[in-house]
Design a protein that fits this description.
The structure is a homodimer of 428-residue chains. Chain A has 428 residues and is α/β, with parallel strands linked by helices. Chain A is built from 14 helices and 16 strands. Chain A has helices at 13-24, 26-33, 64-69, 84-95, 105-122, 138-145, 160-172, 176-185, 194-197, 200-214, 233-241, 304-324, 362-372, 402-413; strands at residues 3-9, 36-43, 60-61, 75-78, 100-102, 126-127, 151-157, 224-225, 244-253, 261-270, 282-289, 293-300, 347-357, 377-381, 390-401, 423-427. In chain A, strands 7, 8, 9, 10, 11, 12, 13, 14, 15 and 16 form a 10-stranded mixed beta sheet that branches. In chain A, strands 3-2-1-4-5-6 form a 6-stranded parallel beta sheet, with helices on both faces. In chain A, a hairpin with a 7-residue loop joins β9 (244-253) and β10 (261-270). Chains A and B meet through α1, α2, α6, β12 and α12 of A and α1, α2, α6, β12 and α12 of B.
Chain lengths: 428, 428
């Protein structure tokens, strides 16, 4: 039986999960793939640290180069995090013709184009199922399962932390700071939750999905990203009255043939839409293909074990690749002239909440500004309020380009009758 | 650019979809896989038939052997249906070292063991994504995505026709014959809907899933199968009162290490369970792995286009296999000592509806029989009824082995106070 040597770069949460699961289900894996997967070298930052798993001391090194260069290592698993150092690791491993498995979404979003060019030049595959929605085999499904489809859209909840916070804000009617604190004390948010909350973690994932689906590497600068920091309990309540839940949704869409849309932002999702009932730390993706129609995938997006499951699936594929000397695959560019729609041209219906003086004429003034931007109002709601003298005013806006909408809001915000920063949310 | 020749055996609904989609998305596929997929030969039963797609006349033949033997054909797609003839096709194609793509669930359920032995001997892969839940890449996900997991359970709705009928019975409060007729006139049920309704279509799919998950080919004789013919509007209503929906659920489970459970039967699903909200012709699978946890897949299970999408994904993989001369894979036996639990030992909670005399002492008599079989009652409901003199009596039963439950029901049915055939349903 051929043995395939694995080098783990990083023994943090996910690395520990991979190491433990490989031991736990070792026999099963061997039987299923006809190859033995054996961890041979592990690079860690601090050799002295006490850990929940105890690999033999001689397996550990504090130099990642040592695992890449080790002739006993056939596949390298990059679980270091960050950008520059893992990028160096990729360069070195691919040059040595060793497949790399990673869960590093930030790296792929920032350096995907370079990495897959290196991989193509070397003829060596790169695997990254763990980078998007760990427990859900979405990379495999998009790349292989839907290979015959033009993907028309993907709507997804890709960040468990922000979804947990929004779920708690909805259920317990608490505000953002309180929900964040709760998420942190329950272990669902990191001490520094910046990337989860400001939308960039799901944006990195959306970039990977969009690139796979549309065949060109999407530039981070062309992605519109908004986080959940500004969502208030009041908006969640008003949205509820209107039949919506607020979710942090990644939207990837190709309406026209000329350009695609990639954005992540808090979005009003109709209550009966399946994404509206995805709660807590779960992830879900709704994928629409021109042949397959609508499909939905749902599962745990992060955490030690689901992510380890994805890494192991990639390891099995890398091992089969080594054993069969097959062709490299990974990211195949096929949309070389693809481009992203400018943010200003993104079309959506919107929810606009204003805080205004409670006096006649105010609505006419606001409607006037919207009208002058050729923006149509579909309904106006004045929610009951005990605040005085300023009151909330919610406007539901017909499909309009985001750029024009933004201009109108800027103008409205400067009206004398508007008393606080307007809240503008997208509607699914 | 290498061209891979395809032979289509069968140009019915799915064959037509495959032919049309291959033409429609030809460029995309070529760009994605770097190979050209070209239909070269098509076998049909009746050459004279007028069709919605018009392949060149010289492409058509009425002998399936002609496409297998054609040296221009590298991959054979079996879409004939039935058992004996397709089995002959598999033998001939695998002998000629040509990969076969199929959506034939009955064939795999009946002859899977033989087919995969032939494939292993020939070193040629067999692909069957289209056999289970067409639009959902579940075969790929189980075989590759969850390869590192012991699968603990799969609960699935795998037949669109019966799910449509049950959905209509629930929504419109109509009885089975009426809902069936509606399904037929809407095109959601075939003229002969036998396999859809009696549970054998989903049972074939469950056998394929169980075999993949547990590594030994499950014998059809060890699968407990019950259809939806006996479900009445009354049971759906009573179940609703108790907080359940009735669905035709395939259950695949490995509770112990010694044996697995494979069954398909109408099942009371708690309303808040995600399978309860899968309506109409949709399919859904809830897969639980020991590492990945719970995941859900949802999409169209059948129909021309979703099935074609699955066939094309398999064709792409077969083409890559030919191009790279990789190793064969398909079904890898790894649970050689696996076996199925005897039907009598399957454990479940149950719903038992009786039609009984409306007089004192009846409940005591029935409870007595259950007690003598060591079966516990969790609740008793006497639904309101305008029927006289016999009335419905619904008992919710604690977890019990099916065999003992069946014996008790046989005895109850012969009591003088029981006036109609008892209805026994499983609870999820």
């Amino acid at each position: 039986m051929q043995k395939i040597g694995i080098g783990l770069a990083g023994l943090g949460t996910v690395g520990t999960g991979v190491y433990r699961s490989l031991l736990q289900n070792r026999l099963l894996l061997t039987e299923r793939i006809g190859l033995e997967l054996e961890v041979r070298r592990i690079a860690v930052r601090n050799l002295a640290l006490s850990r929940s798993v105890k690999p033999p001391a001689e397996m550990l090194t504090d130099r990642w180069e040592a695992i890449v260069d080790d002739p006993a290592v056939g596949v390298v698993v990059e679980l270091i995090g960050g950008i520059d150092l893992p990028y160096e690791l990729f360069r070195r491993a691919l040059k040595a013709r060793k497949p790399v498995v990673t869960g590093n979404k930030a790296l792929l979003a920032e350096k995907g184009a370079e990495i897959f060019e290196l991989a193509a030049d070397a003829g060596v595959p790169v695997f990254f199922e763990a980078a998007v929605a760990g427990g859900i085999p979405i990379i495999k499904s998009i790349r292989e399962g839907f290979i015959g489809n033009h993907l028309q859209s993907i709507h997804a909840i890709l960040n468990g932390t922000s979804n947990y916070i929004l779920t708690r804000m909805t259920e317990a009617r608490i505000n953002f700071p309180e929900a964040l604190q709760e998420a942190q004390s329950s272990g669902y948010a990191e001490a520094d939750p910046t990337l989860d909350i400001n939308g960039w973690d799901p944006a990195h994932k959306a970039i990977i999905l969009a690139s796979l689906a549309y065949g060109f590497w999407v530039d981070t600068r062309h992605v519109y990203v908004e986080g959940i920091e500004k969502i208030s309990a009041a908006d969640i309540r008003f949205a509820e009255t209107l039949g919506y839940r607020i979710k942090l949704v990644a939207t990837i869409r190709a309406d026209s043939n000329s350009a695609i849309e990639v954005r992540v932002n808090p979005t009003l999702v109709p209550k009966e839409h399946v994404l509206a009932s995805v709660n807590g730390v779960f992830n879900a993706l709704m994928v629409r293909g021109d042949i397959v129609g609508d499909t939905l995938f749902y599962g745990r997006g992060a955490g030690q074990d689901p992510t380890a499951s994805a890494v192991i699936s990639d390891l099995a594929q890398a091992a089969i690749w080594i054993d069969s000397g097959g062709k490299a695959f990974g990211f195949t560019p096929h949309g070389l002239y693809g481009k992203c729609l400018p943010t200003d041209e993104l079309m959506s219906a919107f929810y606009l909440r204003l805080t205004v003086d409670d006096r006649p004429g105010v609505l006419a003034q606001i409607a006037g500004v919207l009208g002058s931007h050729n923006i149509g109002i579909s309904s106006v709601i004045q929610p009951e309020s005990h605040e005085t003298p300023a009151v909330p005013l919610v406007l539901m806006i017909h499909n309009a380009p985001f750029g024009r909408m933004r201009e109108a809001v800027d103008q409205i915000k400067n009206l004398e009758c508007v008393k606080a920063e307007p809240v503008l949310l997208w509607i699914l």
